[in-house]
Structure formats: structure tokens, C-alpha cells
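@channel anyone free to eyeball this complex?
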Amino acid sequence: MMEYLKIAFRNLSRYKKRSILTGLGMLLGSFLLIFSFAYGNGIEEQLISNMVQSTTGHLRITAHKESSGSDFEEAFQVEKNLIDNSEQIREELTKHSGIRDVKKQINITGILSNGYKMKPGMIIGVEPEKEVELFHRILPATQGEPLSKEDRGAIYIGPVVAATYEVGIGDLLTVMAETQDGVTNVGDFVVKGIFRSGSPQTEMNSYIPLFDADALAQLGGKVNLLKVMLEDAQSAEAVATMLHQEMGTELGIEIKDWKSAGGFFFGTIIATQVFNIVFCAILFIIVTITVMNTMLIAVYARTREIGTLMAIGTKRRQIIFLFITEAFLLGFLATGLGIILGSGLVFWLQKVGIPAFLESMRYAYGGDRVYPFLKGSDLLATYLSVVLLTVISSIYPAYTGSKLKPVEALAQV
Amino acid sequence: MKGRLILALLLSGLLLGRSFVSAVEFSSDQIIAEVDELINSTTGKYTAEITIIRPGKDDRTSKVEVFIKGISKVLVRYLAPAQEKGQGYLRLNDDEWLFLPNANKSIRVSGRQNMQGSDLANDDLLKVKLTEDYTSMLIGTDTIEGVAVYMLELTARNPAVAYGRLKYWVRQSDFIPIKTEYYAISGKMLKTAIYDEVIEIGGKVRPTRMEISSALRKGYKTVFTIIDADYKYENPDSIFTRMYLEKGK
Amino acid sequence: MMVTLFKMALRNLGRHKRRTFLTGMMIAVGALTMFLSFTYSYSVTRNMTETAIKACAGNILIHADFEEKIELFMPSDEAPLLRDSDLIRELLMADEAVEEVAPRLRFGGLVAVAEQSPSGVIVTAVDPLIEPRVTPKVKTLEGSYLTKPDGIILGETTAKSLNAHIGQDLILIASNQDGYLNAYPFEVEGIVTHEGMGMFIDYMNYISIDAARSLLYLDEDEAFELAVALKNSADEGKMVSAIERRLEANGFKLRVDSWKNNLGIFYGIIVGIKVIPQVMLIIIILVVVAGISNTILVSILERIREIGTLMALGTKRREVMGIFLLEIAVLSSFAAGIGLVIGSLVVFWIGRVGIRVTIEALEFVSGGEYFYLLFNGMALFISFMGTILITLVAAFFPARTATRLAPVEALRSVK
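replying in thread with the prediction:
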């Protein structure tokens, strides 16, 4: 075995140019694959994180009600039904080890006014101290600051709202909402900050402290939504089922994992995943063809060499094995290098982020930048497949080459 | 012992000033009851003009006729202009209905909705009975343009009432209100009303003009003027039915 | 001279069949992939654009001259109306590029069904005969489309939330711009969905524009907007100016916009979605370049001896390169051609059959239940020329380097 490796290694280094060129294909291929996987991962992660942080949580708990059937409506439902003992539920839930945090939220469809213009708007009451991800990464402030725990009477708005009502930091926005009894309640809010969002689903929202939302809609401590954050996002479905059995029906609440709760927006995430898969598949096919091609050409070109070897008595099996070893070695090194370079780039970009060059890319990314990252499976899959391809592509030409009579093989130019 | 008590009262009366002595004469409930009696009648009928003022647009005036029987039966009929003739509102117990002639049918409405795009809420015409809906408190006295007034604060008895809080300025001499401020539950002011043109009408001496200014939208006003009234008129029960409402006359 | 070289190129190619085949295959795959990616990107963009235009907006929208931003299908209650809509329509229809001009009103109102409390609705009032020609993607699911003067068409979403059914009576209440309230009884005549973007706007409801004018106390030819459908969507850019000029020439000062400016945030979503396959395309092109380059490099390397031999025989460098490049050109033309033929077949097949879309979200990208690839001649041309160009460029430099080697060295290298 060692013999073969030595010979293989010597062969490769003897014909540097050929080796490098052949290896280049594998290197580039694996590099690109790694990068594409990472890029796709980054986008998917950000989109999911956006949805989970702003809309659903890993688990979304709402008061039980009939489903409307449309994914889109599902995502946009403003819950009229309230959760009664949200604090108690929160306590119960945080006892479970898999649950990291429970955040209360109140969604209000109300009317915003600047004293002249009055239009409907979505107002969301949140607990600022629990929404760090939301206020600092997904909706960072471009002017002013996001809400903080002690704030009262402050509102955090998006650029569209700011422009529509022509308000800036320190200006007042009046919010009108209907209380449970149908009475109109009105409150003034000072614009504390204006955020920048890459996600169309959050751009039109305005955020106020939960305390104020409660007072405005006169909910008496009730909320219409609880967002549950889990340690492990993948466990969402399982945890949801378990919780539902334990607490669901008693407390009259509905516990949905983020995939079912995400409705339409989860659909867009799936759409992105589909694009991603299709793209990586195409990429993979091209890489495959390239590697196969170069290997085939390279090995066929060495038919004379095969002839020489056979002429001096090397068995066919040995010849094939030799070529396989060479291919394997080259593949191993070239792919390895490609992966290392690719990973290096990814690690760097993971910190820095790839900026969105166009305004429109912000929507595709779900933010201003995308942070690619690699999963172990990506590395393994790329490595195995490219090396395998390389090896397989070398077998056939080596086999056919070795089938020729030495005389014929030697005659090949 | 008794003598000293009387002396103490007299002394405290002198020390604390005349206004306070007057205040002690009437409780907030009594004052509000008087106000109710004056402006929120429970009998009779009257005609009024409602003028809606909006910045940048022409003023729009409608003419209505209102019939009242007790605290739970009110019929409002639009007489003019042509686009609104035949429209009407009916309050029957806890339900309020709106009739638009082209619709052939009356529909249920909420008391808090604005009446025909004005700054009046439906309830302002159909439901106001202050003593029923609010608890009152006398918070002080004041003098406005030389007139001594009581200041009262009214708080909604239950959450279903249109306004969370009201502030009334009522003339001490005759319990005629001169100003009201309307507040939402949060404490934010929604609108103000100013009453004037106090004349004798339909058997009462009362303000016949009410100007309401929205506090939420600058320049939005509605003027409600009573043209004539007969507060002694007895309305038959039959007109307070949906069927009658839907007749359109 | 050319003919000789050509013949030589062909013979060379034929002599090393395997090499030719492999190189050719790489080129074919490259061209195919480029073409398919191009087509995919184009199809996605077109589908969404078509959906937005045909299910909702029309190509160009005309409003009275006002500043406020228009959001997708939201009534602009305070926006002024335009007059003489019939006159304007005639004016515009005279232009050959215009297919149809549809007048519309849009307003928010209340709908009272039976004894329930009224619920808010948004209504677009249209001309029943003209509108379907501007928005053919509004599909009637049940019932009929405004054949009755007092008919109302409910969007699927509204119908569900009101629990309404065909034949049901309801009362539509609205207030006009002066604030006067009015109401009329309507009969639910049909239920529609906006194909491809139903999830976004199936809350929209329709009545006839005549009924709306009565309801809102408007004149016979007042309208909120005129939606222009062009015979060819590509004319949009120049038509906006053309229409503006024509209107101005006739004394109308109106706001003329592409549909893109009338969808508000929704347009941002469209752009965001179409960018993805475009980026994909760029990356794929890069990959194709790399793949082809690599293959060509290897094959040239293999033929260094050949090159050396030729030069040793006295062939000038320029001629040697000429032979090589000609070979490559011929090969890539054929290969690209074959790749593109296959690509076109794929496109035609999917274009006919369509791929079924199961996720609601994807329906927007595909413009309906099935995703069709659309054939684009430009994509074909660019893929063809592009592949050949890439191949030639990829071959040029190594060929030049190879010919620079002294013949002796070339002959000596044993590959």
C-alpha cells in the first residue's frame, strides 16, 4: 500500500503542471461548493431568526381559536382572544430545561395619528429587556435608540411610518386602539428611535412597551401572544407536542412550533431553501462534470504511460489501482485545500458579513448583511463527494487504457 | 356644646370663603343631575343643525330632528341636505341602529362611532345620561370671564361607557354648563365642547349652541345648534321601532 | 486559406475523438447551465411581474396629480379624483400600443351582512366589461363577474371571513369625500381570487363603477385611477412618457406611473425575490468559466508535443494558434449549439407542462399553481455567444504560452 502511495506521489510531482491543472478543478469546485453552502446557510438562518425573533418565537402560544386555513392570514392574525394567566404560564414554562425564555407580546391593530393624518397601523407591545436580538440585530436603530426596560410612553418606529407621519426623534405620535369593550382609547407616544429593517414583514410595525400596550387596550395584564425561545431550535416540534399534552387544553392555549405558526412567512423561508437546494445542485453538477472531465482527459492522455507499464509487466489490476491511488491522493489534497480555503473565507465572512449591495438584496437576506457559516455536514459532504468523483472518474479510463494491447497503447500519442 | 359647634361652623365658613360655602351647598351629584336635566332631556323633541368644519374643505351642514322618550328611546331623523334626507338613528334600549334610505334596511352601529363623519359620537346624541353612566366629583371652583363656575370630574362607571373621563365647567348660578373636556381612559384628551347662546327654548333656558373641537386632529370642529324644541311633547312609543326608522320619514 | 485551416481543424478534432468529446461535453454543459439559469431567473422575474400587472395593477396607472405615496390596493381617502375619465380613455386608446384603459374607484367602507355588526372592507369599483381585459388574472371561483348592476364580487379572503355565499344580500356603506354617508344593498354575485397573489390581496372586493358613483355621489366620469394595459409590457418605459406628453398636449395635468410605483412595499418584495436567481446566475457563470477553462487547459497541456512538432516543422506561431483557436471555435460552436438545443427542449417541455407548486408562498413566484419556464431568445443568444467567447478566451492564453515554448522543450515534455 505504501508503495502505491509513494509511486502515486512521485507521479503527481513529476508532472506538476498536469497535476496542478487537474487538481485545480477539484480545488475550485470544492471551494465554491463550500462557499455556496455557507452562503445559503447564512441566509436561511437569518430569515428564520428574523421570523422567530419578531413574530413567532420557537414556539408560539396563543389563546385557542379556530384556524382560518390561509397561511397568509395565519401569519397576520391579530389575536382577539387573550391569554389569561400569561405570568403563570411563563413561570411554568421556564421550569423546563429546554426552554430558554418566554416573551410576552401584545399585537394591536390601531390607528396612528400625528394630529393631521390618521391611518391604520400595527402596534406591537413588547418587553424591551427581552427583545435584545430584535432591537439590536433585526431592527437596529438608524436614529435614536430602541426601547429599554424603563421606558414609558415611547415608540420605536420604522422608516415608512416615520416618513408617512413626518415625525422624527422626540416628536409625538398618537395611537388609537379599541379596548376589549369597544371603547376607543388614545395615547401619545414619543418617538424614541427609528429602525432599519431588511424584512418587509417587520417594516410596518411600531413597537411600544408592553406596559403601555396593556394600558392602551385595557387588557388588565393579559396578552395575546407568548413567544417561547428554546435552547435548541430543532426541538420545537417535540417540545410543542409535549407542552400541549401537559398544559394545552387546560389553560385554553394553543402551542405551535415555529414552522406551523410561521404560516406564509415560513413558506417564503421554504421557498428560499428550495432555491438554495436547486442552486447547490446545479453547482454540484457542474463541479462533477468538470472534475470528471479533467480526470478523464488527464488519464486518457497517459495511455502511453499505461502501455509502458504493461510492457514492463505490471498487471492490469495494479495499474488501475495505481491510477486510483493517484486520483485519490490528488483529490484528497486538492479538495482538502479547496475546503480549507473555502472555510477560511467563510470564517472571515462570518465575522464581517457580506453586505447587501443592492437595496433589494436586503429583502432577500432579511437584513443588511448575511453571515455565512458552515455545518459539519457541508464539509463532509463536499469532501466525500468530490474525492469520490475524482476516484470514480479515473477508473474508467485506467480500465480501458489497460485493456489495450501494450503495442496499441504505446502507439497512442 | 351645641353653640360652640355652630360658632365653629360659622367661623370656618367665614375663613374658607364664600365659594367654598356655596360648594358645600350642592353635591356633585346634584349639580350633574341639574346639568342632565338641562341639556340631556328625557322627553320631547327638537330640531338642530349640525355643521361639520374641516380644514381645506367647505363646511357641511345637516338638519336633524330628534325625538326622545325616557332614557332608552331616542330617534334621530335627518331632514337635510338632500343626500342625507331620510337617514336616521334609533336607540332602543341597548341597541343602536342606523338607517340609510338606499339600503332598505337598518344596520346595527356602535355608539362610539362618529355620527355622519362629524366630531359627535353616536352616543353623544343617543345615549348621554350623565348620572347613569358616570360617577362625579366636585374638584373645585373657578371664574371664567367673570362667571363663577363649578369644576366637576366625571369618571365612567363601567368600561363600556364612551368616555373614560369628562370634565365639566358648570355655572354656579344656574347650572348651565359652559365647557366640557372629553378624555379617553388613558387620560388623553379627545375633544372639547363649548356651550353658548343660552336662550329660552321649548320650555327650558339652556345653551343652544355647542361647538366641539377635536383634540386629535387640528382644525376639526363640529357645531351643534338647536333651532327649535318642545321638551314637553309626548312621543308615541310606535316611533321608536326599527320599522318606523326604516320608513325614512 | 481559411478553408484549409478549417479542414485541418475538423480533422484534428476528429482525430482525438475522446478528447474532443470530453471537451465538447464540458462546453455543452456550460452553455446548457448558463442558459437554464438565465431562463430561470428571467422566468421568475417575468412571472412575478406578470402577476402584479395582470392580477392587480395594469402596466401603467394614471391618477390626479397628488403627492402622497400609493400603497398596494389601499384606498387613498383624501386623494383627489380625476375627471373626464371617458375622455382620457378615448385619448389613450388611440395609441396603438395601448390594449385597454380601465377606470377605477377605490374606497374603504363597511359591509353589513344580515344582522351582524358591519365589518370593514376595501372595494374597487370597475367597469365590468373593460376590467377583465386589464386584469385577466382575477379569476372567478364561484358565481359570475358583475353581470348584475347591484352585484358585488368578494375576494376569497373576505368571503371566508364574512362567511358569505353567492346570492346573499348585504349592504355596503361608504362615505364619500365630503363625508356624506350612503348605503346600497348588493347581492353577492361571485367570489374571486387573484391568481398568483391571492394570499396578498384576496381581501379586495369589486362592484361596478356605476354603482360606486351612485353610492359616492360622484359624477359620471369621475374616477380615482385609470389602469392602462399595454399590448406589450416591454413598452412600459417609453409609454409612460408618451402618455404624459399626450395628456399634457390635451391640457390634462395628471400623474402617470409605472405599476412599480403603485404597489408600495410589495414592489420591494418582488425585487428582493428576483435578485436571488440573478445572483445565482452570476455565480453559475463564474463556475462555468472555471470549468471550461480548466478543461481547455488540460487538453492544451496534453497537446504540447503536438504544438512543438508543428512549430519544429516551421509553422509560424500565429498559424499554430490560429489552428488551435479555430478548432476551439468550431468545437465550441457545435457543443454550445447542442447544449442549447437540449436546453431549449427542456424549457419548452417545462414551459408546456409546468411544475406543480405546493407551497402557498411559492405561488407568487410562479404566478399561479404551476411554474412555467419562459423561453427567452436573448438568453439563448447570450448563452451561445458567451460560451464561445469564454472558451476562446480560456484557450487563448494557454495556447499562446504553449507556442512560446521552444519547440525542443515542447517535444521533450513527455506530458
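from a first look: Confidence is low (pLDDT under 50) at residues 13-23 of chain B.
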